[in-house]
Specification:
The protein has 214 residues and is α/β, with parallel strands linked by helices. The chain is built from seven helices and ten strands. Helix 2 links the parallel strand 2 and strand 3. The protein is globular.
């Protein structure tokens, strides 16, 4: 068994795996099709990383697909009952890329809730407001990254919060799974700032930070 399964080999997968290794966690890294991509990333990361491809047996109870929403749905369908009882961390921002004006989920739902409808895993929303470039360092401008977390299963929420804390991040549990709706809108706004060429200071290098009063 490993501590965390990360699916994907892109920038978010790299950022999450970097935090996992910093936390001293063992990682199963699964590429979509080309295992060589996972092997290359693993060699760059160091640490305890095993590699494979989507479809291989999941060796962790904490599963984080670092993919877009449509790919996340395909992963859930692919693994089916093998996800039952596991903690599934949904990091997606289901942006409607056809219009770039909103999210591609019903207004009274979220990506996390839609995924929960089709899996026996406990879906926890987290990491959707953290950019890949900032995860590597775990901080922005000297501020530790907040990881905003929403879920309905207390044990699953705790597992994600424990991982974030061990990785040197600041877990903030914002409420039940339905709060993922607000988190995804926040994530979308964060994306819009970085995608706006008229705001050169925000180029995928910022963080969403909640600062409580002293």
């Amino acid at each position: 068994m490993t501590d965390i399964t990360i699916i994907g080999t892109g920038n978010m997968a790299r950022g999450l795996a970097t935090r996992a290794i910093a936390a001293g966690k063992s990682v199963q890294l699964l590429a979509h099709e080309d295992k060589a991509k996972a092997q290359v990333l693993a060699s760059e990361l160091g640490g305890q990383v095993s590699t494979g491809v989507v479809g291989d047996e999941l060796t962790s109870n904490l599963v984080i697909p670092a993919v877009y929403f449509d790919a996340a749905k395909a992963i859930v369908a692919r693994y089916g009952d093998a996800l039952n009882g596991k903690v599934y961390v949904d990091i997606t921002n289901p942006v409607d890329f056809a219009t770039f004006e909103g999210l591609a989920v019903p207004a009274d739902s979220s990506a996390a809730e839609e995924l929960q409808k089709i899996t026996g895993a406990s879906v926890v929303k987290a990491f959707n407001t953290t950019f890949a470039a900032t995860l590597g360092e775990g901080a922005v401008a000297g501020h530790i990254l907040d990881v905003l977390i929403a879920g309905d299963d207390e044990a699953a929420i705790q597992a994600v919060a424990d991982f974030a804390a061990a990785a040197g991040l600041n877990p903030v549990v914002v409420g039940p799974q339905r709060r993922a709706r607000q988190l995804e809108q926040t994530g979308f706004l964060h994306i819009l700032l970085s995608a706006n060429d008229e705001l050169p200071a925000y180029q995928w290098n910022s963080g969403v930070k909640l600062i409580p009063a002293a």
